[in-house]
Specification:
Structural class: alpha+beta
Order of helices and strands: EEHHEEEEEEH
Radius of gyration: 23 Å
Shape: rod-shaped
Number of strands: 8
Distance between the termini: 20 Å
């Protein structure tokens, strides 16, 4: 995968990073400055609306079964069905809290900006692009960015097999700004 500047959003070629890719690569026409952006997100197969519909469907079926047993005389099924629905609701809340987790790396004007959102908490770090060191210890390990006495670990939402590729792409982009 290569890094290039264009006026439109870059689309990855087949086989490129799917969980993490250069989401936006633009050139400012007035100053001819290139900005690169990597947006790394969770791979959620269901939209929030689809997830809510699925949870209500599961809950409705569980309640229908519980009511059927209650009418048959098995009254203890209803409390257990309610406990099941509470557990399902708790799982939905945990999923909703982390559904928007992401990492965003922006390379512009000699700065590498790392923004991380995890569980509703947001963190932002800025690195001088010329001094950033990109390290990936091995296949499957997270990508470590160090520079200026600071350290950021990224790549949590990238498939382990593709993290080395992300590190190479970051190194290549950072070399392009240092020159």
């Amino acid at each position: 995968m290569s890094v290039a500047a264009s006026q439109r959003t870059w689309k990855p070629e087949p086989g490129a990073l799917t969980a993490a890719s250069v989401d936006d690569c633009r050139t400012d026409a007035a100053t001819e400055r290139v900005s690169l952006e990597w947006v790394l997100r969770r791979n959620c197969s269901l939209s929030p609306k689809q997830l809510i519909v699925a949870c209500f469907g599961i809950g409705g079926v569980a309640l229908a079964i519980a009511v059927g047993f209650w009418w048959s005389g098995a009254t203890l099924v209803v409390p257990f069905a309610c406990i099941e629905l509470l557990a399902l609701g708790a799982a939905l809340l945990v999923h909703a809290r982390h559904a928007l987790d992401s990492e965003r790396l922006l390379l512009r004007d000699g700065l590498l900006v790392v923004q991380r959102v995890y569980g509703g908490r947001s963190e932002r770090m800025e690195f001088e692009a010329a001094w950033v060191r990109v390290t990936a210890r091995g296949k499957g390990s997270l990508v470590e960015l160090t520079g200026g006495g600071r350290r950021a670990v990224v790549g949590r939402f990238v498939a382990p097999a593709l993290r080395l590729r992300l590190a190479r792409e970051l190194r290549s982009a950072l070399r392009g700004t240092a020159a």
